Amino acid sequence: MPDDKKWYVIQTYSGYEKHVMTDILQRKKNMNMEDKIFRVLVPIEEYKIFREGKPARAAKRKLYPSYVMVEMILDEQSWYAVRHTPGVTGFIGAGNHPKPLSDEEVARLMAAIEKKDDDKIKIEMDIQPGDAIQIEDEDLGVYSGKVTSVNARKGTVKFTRDGFNGEMETDYTSVRKI
User: 15 with 102, same domain?
Assistant: First the structure.
């Protein structure tokens, strides 16, 4: 038998993604579908939250809220087992004909899920260009300035220092909004 397993996207009630994943895995076992249903994923991403110069707090969020990905061989039995799992509202596709993800979509999804390095983690900051800030620098002491740009990917803030010409850059952890 050729390897017909593909990735499918199912829609769930909001906030039920992990419950649906657990239930599908349990139904797979109870209905002896190990040869038709393989992996079930709720894609999440890691990010860091910086608030008012406090230490970074790690957090996670769903990449695709209300969606769960299932790797399976689609036939009537496997479709029924997944579709009738509590919390599942349907498959992505037309009616009873789910559309599998393309190989490119699967590769992109897996790359997003597997990002674990700190330099790839998104950073969420509460500072915007134009905000007045106070910078605490070990070498230069405490001084104030105005934000000109924010680089959330690097976790840095560019600013103009009061009383000086030119733009400076610092790590977000040394900045406090005033």
Answer: yes
User: In the numeric block, which tokens belong to residue 141?
Assistant: 């002491």
Q: Is 173 exposed, middle or buried (0-12, 13-18, 19+ CB in 10 A)?
A: middle
For residue 35 the two structure tokens come to: 């040869």
Residues 41 and 13 in one domain: yes
- Going by C-alpha positions, the residue among 55, 39, 21 that lies closest to residue 123 is 55
* pTM to 2 decimal places: 0.64
90, 11 contact by CB (below 8 A): yes
* Tokens found for residue 121: 């983690």
Rounded (10°) angle between helices 17-30 and 76-83: 140
In whole angstroms, give the CA distance from residue 57 to residue 66.
25
CA–CA–CA angle 18, 20, 23 (5° rounding): 110
Domain residue limits at 94: 6-123
123: its two tokens: 């950073």
Is 92 found in the same domain as 27? yes
The owner of tokens 């393989």 is 38
Handedness of CA 24, 29, 33, 39 (dihedral sign): positive
Task: For 101-128, write each residue's pLDDT tens digit.
Answer: 999 988 888 887 776 545 455 666 778 8
